[in-house]
């Protein structure tokens, strides 16, 4: 089951990114899911599902947004002996 969500955005949101509304929405979903993934709130698989893309496409989006595909906390890195 899908739920439709409506968001009001100023006209300038589209022109700033040089995207049409139809191009803007998928980019917005990718940006949101990349941030939620970066914060450790969702997995890569769930993020890809929410964004409506394959996991491979989601990994490419992470690269585009400068987000590491690895979720390691500072404590985990320290436990592994990472510098």
Short description:
By secondary structure, the protein is mostly helical. It has helices spanning 12-17, 21-38, 44-51, 55-65, 74-79. It has a domain at 18-67.
Kindly list the characteristics that best describe this protein.
83 residues, mainly alpha, 5 helices, elongated
General description of the model:
- The chain has a domain at about 20-65.
- Helix 2 runs antiparallel to helix 3 (about 45-50) and helix 3 (about 45-50) crosses helix 4 (about 55-65).
- The radius of gyration is 16 Å and the shape is elongated.
- About 60% of the residues lie in helices and about 0% in strands.
- It has helices at about 10-15, 20-40, 45-50, 55-65, 75-80.
- The protein has about 80 residues and is mainly α.
- It has 5 helices and no strands.
């Amino acid at each position: 089951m899908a739920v439709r969500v409506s968001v009001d955005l100023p006209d300038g949101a589209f022109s700033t990114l040089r995207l049409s509304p139809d191009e803007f929405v998928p980019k917005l979903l990718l940006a949101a899911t990349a941030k939620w993934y970066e914060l450790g709130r969702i997995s890569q698989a769930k993020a890809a599902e929410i964004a409506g893309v394959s996991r491979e496409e989601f990994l490419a989006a992470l690269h585009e947004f400068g987000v590491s595909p690895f979720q390691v906390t500072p404590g985990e890195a320290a436990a592994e002996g990472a510098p």
